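INTERNAL AUDIT FORM
Audit reference: QA-55
Scope: verify that the stored structure record matches its stored sequence.
Auditor: D.O.
Record contents follow.
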Amino acid sequence: MILSNTEMLPGKKIVKHLGLVQGSTVQSKHFGRDIMAGLKNIVGGELKGYTELLEDARNTAMYRMEEEAKILGANAVINVRFTTTSVTQGAAELLAYGSAVVVQDI
């Protein structure tokens, strides 16, 4: 499965557009991570616990989007985008979405 944030794929021709596909996950903060993040805010630096949390969320959302595209018969997803939404205090949704297509080599 080809995943791309562009509208076209070099060397490929879009032969069928199958529609919008998406994948999402809702993640909540971990109490231990919050304590460590609070300490990091005092001294500065990367919040590695949150970096890992967001990386996992992006991977899960992309995987779910890709699975939806496979069900439709796509071999690529173009115009892939991400967005986040606060669901409740301490929890957020990460959404990956794009256009499922069938492509062929030119």
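Auditor finding: record pair retrieved intact. The chain has two helices and four strands.
Action required: none
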